[in-house]
Amino acid sequence: MGQNAAVEIRDDRDHGNLVAYEGGESAGTIAYFVTDPAPGALVAVHTVVRPEHEGKGIAGALVREFYAMAAREGVPVVPLCPYAAKWAKRHPDEAPEVSAELVQEAERQLRHHPELF
User: Fold this and answer.
1) Which of 30, 32, 28 is nearest to 50 (CA)?
2) Per DSSP, which regions of 7-71 are E strands?
3) pLDDT at position 37 over 60
4) CA 54 to CA 48: how far, in whole Å?
5) 9, 16, 43, 108: least surrounded by Cβ within 10 Å?
6) Shortest CA distance to 75 belongs to which of 92, 98, 59, 91?
7) Structural contact between residues 76 and 48, judged by C-beta atoms closer than 8 angstroms
8) 47, 67 in Cβ contact below 8 A?
9) How large is the angle between the packed helices 58-73 and 82-90, nearest 10 degrees?
10) What's the pLDDT score for residue 1?
11) What is the pLDDT of residue 2?
12) Distance CA 86, CA 90 (A)
């Protein structure tokens, strides 16, 4: 599955969403948060693609952009989302591993974000 050229991806940092739009409508989202203290790691919690947009490479495009966004900001990514974690293992050149300590801290801080459960 390749990235769909018609997909536009926008970061809604205030709401903790990286959103893919196709044809002007929301097609998929990564729900995330930023660990404290700033500048913290970007923590991917859920990746969801609407059923009518599945199979178009949208989830992969979202995760790729999530890692690229983190790289531009100079912060790591903690992929707590199972899809993002699988993607990272398949793309180690784009998705640097993070320490177990950072993963544990992200999991601890996730408890302070009940809106992501």
Assistant:
1) 28
2) 7-12, 17-22, 25-34, 42-49
3) yes
4) 9
5) 108
6) 98
7) no
8) no
9) 80
10) 41
11) 47
12) 6
